[in-house]
Amino acid sequence: MPLIAAGMPVLLHANSTEAQTFGLAAGVDIFAHGLWNWDESSRVTELTATIRKILDAQLQNGRGLQSTIQVLYGEKDLFDDSFLDRPQLAAAVPADLIAWYKTPQGQWFRDDLAKHIVDKPGEKPHNVDDSAIARVKNCVAYLAKNNARLLFGSDTPSSPTYANPPGLNGRMEIRNLVSAGVSAEQVFRAATLSNAEAFGLSADVGTVQVGKRANLLLLHADPSKTIDAYERIEKIILRGQVLDPRELAANR
């Protein structure tokens, strides 16, 4: 039985106009990736009639969207020589692993990707084109303004890259969403109840209620008011067990 007929959510890995048009026609529930590959010239970043038509169809049909903007930033960060020295990374990735990433062996994916984005042989790789980031942010801003069904996701790892580390990647995606025009309240709902509802898990998770699974983050501020709340996790409750986040840091 097809997943749609069985009442199971169907996700489509789609970041292009062609793929998302296909997904709308096929009736998929969720697009995993924002819309950043357009048919227009790569220099075009403002919403066109074609892009608005796709976005309006998503709004009308209640399609879910995991924008995964951080995927693109991860490609840029791969060619940022200071990335592996960021303090945030030290708390999320073991020091020995970071040290290996700095070796020639650890740079294998960066070197392989560089072959495809250099303009001339022997030239230093340039950063990934910012136009794709501008396009997806403009799409997300439009959807957020019109109360789309936004879902949280980071597509971690998007490829064999060290620039999209698990855990930290989600934290960076939160900031990307807000910079694109998504409110703190919309981000909070996307990461909790909306995700739970989209995957048929709202009876167990998504809200704080008696009888639901006790998986909680205790924050120092209200995350529906400010995303700075995620920068300071006081306690973690996992299946009812209270954990100290400092004990979980990679550099503890």
Considering the chains and any ligands shown, give keywords for the structure.
about 40% helix; four-stranded parallel β-sheet; three-stranded antiparallel β-sheet; alpha/beta; 11 helices; about 250 residues
Fold and architecture overview:
This protein is of the alpha/beta class. It has one domain (11-203). It contains eleven helices and seven strands. It has helices spanning 17-26, 49-61, 70-77, 87-92, 95-101, 108-117, 131-145, 168-179, 184-191, 193-198, 245-248, and strands spanning 11-13, 30-32, 64-66, 149-151, 216-219, 233-238, 241-243. The radius of gyration is 19 Å and the shape is globular. 29% of the residues are buried. The mean pLDDT is 91.
| Share of helix, binned | 25-40%
Order of helices and strands: EHEHEHHHHHEHHHEEEH
List low-pLDDT spans.
none
The whole-angstrom Rg is 19 Å
Q: Count of DSSP helices?
A: 11
Q: Class by helix and strand content?
A: alpha/beta
Tell me the count of domains.
1
Give average pLDDT, whole number: 91
Describe the main β-sheet briefly. 4 strands, parallel
End-to-end CA span? 49 Å
Strand content: 5-15%
Shape from CA axes?
globular
Q: How many β-strand runs? A: 7
Question: Taking strands numbered 1, 2, ... along the chain, how are they ordered across the largest sheet?
Answer: 1-2-3-4
